[in-house]
Design a protein that fits this description.
It contains 6 helices and no strands. It is 64% helix and 0% strand. The radius of gyration is 17 Å and the shape is globular. The model has no long low-confidence stretch (mean pLDDT 91). α2 runs antiparallel to α5, α3 runs antiparallel to α4 (122-137) and α4 (122-137) runs antiparallel to α5. It has helices at residues 4-23, 33-54, 65-92, 122-137, 141-166, 171-180. By secondary structure, it is an all-alpha fold. The protein has one domain (4-180): Four Helix Bundle (Hemerythrin (Met), subunit A) (Up-down Bundle).
């Protein structure tokens, strides 16, 4: 059985992610097939967690003792970092972003401060941290598949966004910025 406080924390993290299109992103976009394909694992993981809580989806791995404590501790830590990163990323923007996957979402500014000083896609990083927390909360093939699918979908989306930014009026500066920042995690500097 899933720890109820942990479940609430992880669910609140995904709810915060789900509210971003409503509360933060510009309203000039529309939900399209690419958006739905990227968003699908967010909905599936929520359903999996709820099914796990009510006993309709059993964990593939039943940790006990110190292993269970460690998994739950890391899940809490990942969730807290994910929510904090979402808040810092929203705070770094002077203007809302275009809704994901719009064909006309030309950038209006290049953000290189706040979490963007180290990571090119901090929203996506926070999403991946949330998926990892979900896997630790309910170790199951479905939650693991959501994490893997999320990594692939967000990598494809990030590459597409990077190509568009590199070809935009900010292209030279963005290509330089790419050499000093990591896509989802800070680049190790030597």
């Amino acid at each position: 059985m899933i720890s109820f406080p942990l479940l609430v924390l992880v669910l609140c993290n995904f709810i915060a992610i789900g509210l971003l299109p409503i509360l933060f992103f510009r309203r000039d976009g529309e939900i399209n097939l690419r958006w739905l394909a990227t968003g699908a694992p967010f909905f599936v993981v929520l359903v999996a967690l709820v099914l796990g809580q009510v006993g309709l989806l059993d964990a593939a791995y039943h940790a006990q003792g110190q292993v269970l404590f460690a998994m739950q501790f890391v899940a809490v830590l990942l969730s807290i970092v994910s929510v904090a990163l979402i808040a810092m990323t929203v705070g770094a923007h002077r203007v809302p972003l275009a809704l994901w996957h719009q064909d006309d979402d030309d950038p209006v500014q290049l953000v290189t401060w706040g979490p963007y000083a180290r990571i090119r896609h901090p929203f996506y990083t926070s999403f991946l941290l949330a998926f990892a927390a979900a896997v630790l909360t309910l170790p199951h093939a479905l939650t693991a598949a959501c994490l893997i699918y999320g990594v692939v979908a967000l990598s494809i989306t990030a590459r597409r966004e990077e190509r568009r930014l590199a070809a935009s009026e900010f292209g030279v500066k963005y290509r330089e910025y790419m050499t000093i920042t990591g896509r989802f995690f800070p680049r190790l500097r030597s």
